[in-house]
Amino acid sequence: MDKISWTRFLGSCSDNLKSKIQNLKWAGFLLILLLLAGSVGMAEAQQAKNMPRVGYLALRSGPSSHRDAFVQGLRDLGYVAGQTAAIEYRYADGIPERFPALAAELVKLNVDVIVTASAAAVLALKEATRAVPIVFGAASDPVAANLVGSLKRPGGNITGLSSFAPEAAGKRLGLFKEIFSKVSRVAVLSDPTTILNTVEWTETQAAARPLGVDLFLLEVRRPNDLQPAFDSAVKERAGGLVVLTNPLTNNQRARVAELAVKRALPAIYNDRDFVEAGGLMSYGPELNDLYRRAAGYVDKILKGAKAGDLTVEPPAKFEFIVNLKAAKQIGVAIPPEMLKRADQVMQ
User: Which of 205, 226, 275, 320 has its Cβ near the most Cβ atoms within 10 Å?
Assistant: First the structure.
């Protein structure tokens, strides 16, 4: 019926009939809107259902440079959180004992892959599932920690990136000696219960001989050992401190940095987290780069690759970070040429 015929038809109808016809017209219009809204909702629900879901398990709560690097890595590969991928974050609030419960929670969410870093978190996930692929962002020694069978063929449902670089320990002492050339006695903070510290201690000793540096070991096995260790460093007249890579000192990094500053002891650490916590300087693998690369593993797994077939890769980038605020607190000066060589100078 054309517009003119429709108008003539309405003119011939009673007011009551006109009202009913108009109501029917609006009801039809509303029905069309509801159908359209329903189809949009169904499309969005279908899109959400098909959207890959990534679990992210971390020791400490909230945003971090590692998490940001991973999310950016995903974005570079086309996975935008909330648009083309969903990311489920879970945090242990600094309490490793929470990992098993959080691991079980992520598995129940039916995520497609889970990303984490801590060896304790990986082991908790390993206990929680043999089916969901697990990617670690920066495991120090994944074979020794029993995370994977081998670096070349991890096997099972776990793979990722290793921050294992024992040769960096010798480089660390070399950088320290370049900056503090007059220092001849250096304390080395180590947890002897970790295999990595045994290897790094050997590398540090080898670097010390040609540098003419006398080393002495400060062994710590628990947080309460830290203060006595620093007291021993002062008693032994150490001119500096090298911190080896281990979970104990990493988890206590703010306290370690504080103890070094309070005792006016120049120290070089294994990663930038110590410097961000107030430490003087660090040299080691660029962990944010490892987390960016972890996104590549996620991409391959989402496209059908098996985690156990993906080789565990070593660090590719290293960084030297200096904190001038800590230098001022300790009362030391960093030579300008060394500041130029630093990848980042914190004020």
Answer: 275
